[in-house]
Design a protein that fits this description.
single chain, about 80 residues, alpha+beta, Alpha-Beta Plaits, two-stranded antiparallel ribbon, two-stranded antiparallel sheet, binds iron/sulfur cluster
């Protein structure tokens, strides 16, 4: 399941450089996560590094992009292997 950033985002930019998949960028209002690139950090870290970096806890799972662990691993492999 990809993650999403809520409207509580304060545009601090701290999460952007923490993403190993370059999935995070800024739109005109808040930062956003590309669901095609977010693997929940599977393949890189045990926990989502963006959640750990966010000071206002505005990153959460996105039920609109439900994926199994094997699908996330396949996404990782497609980008990095
Ligand atoms: S969970 Fe990991 S891969 Fe997904 S947006 Fe956050 S840092 Fe990037
Ligand atoms: S770390 Fe949190 S508040 Fe800062 S830009 Fe990322 S999502 Fe927004």
């Amino acid at each position: 399941m990809a993650l999403k950033i809520t409207e509580e985002c304060i545009n601090c930019e701290l999460c952007e450089d923490e993403c190993p998949n370059q999935a995070i960028s800024s739109n005109s209002e808040i930062f956003v996560i590309d669901p095609n690139r977010c693997t929940e950090c599977i393949g890189h870290y045990d926990e989502p590094s963006c959640i750990a970096a966010c000071p206002v806890e505005c990153i959460e799972k996105d039920p609109a992009h439900t994926e199994s662990l094997s699908q996330l691993a396949d996404k990782y492999a497609a980008m990095h292997c």
